[in-house]
Design brief:
Distance between the termini: 61 Å
Structural class: mainly beta
Organism: Aquimarina muelleri
Number of helices: 1
Order of helices and strands: HEEEEEEEEEEEEEEEEEEE
Protein name: MORN repeat variant
Number of domains: 2
Helix content: under 10%
Length: 322
């Protein structure tokens, strides 16, 4: 019994023994403190760091471990309240969880940043009363931050009022090689104003052959021109309005007025293993100005202008043997 007590006592002493750190203080020209931080015997930063504004208000507070700042950083306003302004949680892969606050202390927005300080994923935004105001989905396309979808909500709840978005689903994420996945896409809100929506068409673009070439995560290998003449080969699935028998691909009947803004199809895998179905939904507006004939092409008697909004999606799947 005494040996067990002695062993526990020594263990506590060893755990409680910490390396002595040196406190470092720097100053502004006016004599006010600028930074307070700590270093170990190898001059590597360890522990808490506090920075101050020239006004002596706290600027930010962070924490170092072995010279790395992989903890939460708190940034403050340089005013009388000295309230919290921004909060960042840093991760080893370079990404950041970010929160921004109104002057009254309530959350303003939150979401994730990548290592290049670009927004990705879903960002939620709140008004000064704390109500969820709108959500934006960001994707990194060709290494550029891209606003993919947006939903605006009413103060009384999550009722969608306007924005640019789609609803879509795949009926399963695990399947056998001989099976298929049902995919359904429909616009919640068109990218274009109401008076132009009758001139729009919708479709879904996918790689033609998943066994050879997929869309990469940032879609940089997609076709860049409107005629899809560059990039990897693709297929374009048109809306149900263009389908000769829409009921053949619909799992559940819908009102025929929705056919124009709905795309549905079956996706059949061609290989075993984990994969990601990537593609994009196209909302395309075509305008024809017949008052301005084009002289260069005898068969073309009007000017055609088109505008396209792309909403990118991806869906993870796992295919097993029969």
């Amino acid at each position: 019994m005494p040996k067990k007590i002695l062993y526990l006592f020594i263990t506590v002493l060893l755990i409680g023994c910490k390396e002595k750190l040196t406190k470092v203080v720097t100053y502004y020209d006016n004599g006010n403190i600028k930074y307070i931080y700590y270093i170990d015997k190898d001059s590597i930063r360890q522990g808490k760091e506090i920075a101050y504004f020239p006004s002596e208000k706290i600027s930010f507070v962070s924490k170092y471990t072995d010279g790395k700042n992989l903890d939460t950083i708190y940034y403050y306003n340089d005013d009388e309240s000295n309230g919290l302004k921004i909060k960042k949680l840093l991760f080893e892969n370079g990404s950041t969880y970010y929160e921004d606050f109104h002057k009254n202390g309530l959350l303003k927005k939150k979401g994730f940043l990548n290592k290049n300080n670009q927004r990705f994923g879903f960002w939620k935004n709140y008004d000064k009363d704390g109500n969820h105001y709108f959500t934006k989905e960001y994707k990194i396309i060709d290494d550029i931050e891209y606003t993919n979808q947006m939903w605006i909500t009413l103060p009384i709840g999550d009722t969608l009022t306007e924005g640019v978005s789609i609803q879509y689903h795949f009926d399963k994420n695990k399947l056998q090689l001989t099976d298929s996945i049902y995919a359904f896409f429909q616009t919640d809100v068109s990218s274009f104003v109401l008076e132009d929506q009758e001139k729009t068409t919708v479709s879904v673009v996918l790689p033609k052959d998943y066994t050879q070439a997929n869309f990469v995560p940032d879609f940089s290998n997609r076709a860049k021109d409107p005629d899809e003449k560059q990039g990897i080969p693709v297929i374009e699935v048109q809306s149900l309005k263009e389908h000769p028998n829409p009921m053949a691909v619909l799992q559940k009947p819908i009102d025929t007025t929705d056919y124009k803004k709905t795309v549905a199809f079956y996706w059949k895998p061609k290989r075993i293993g984990k994969d990601t179905i990537r593609g994009y939904f196209k909302d395309k507006l075509t305008l024809v100005d017949e008052s301005k004939p084009i002289q260069l092409d005898k068969d073309q008697d009007s000017i055609i202008t088109s505008y396209t909004k792309k909403i990118y999606f991806e869906f993870a799947v796992e295919v097993t043997k029969d």
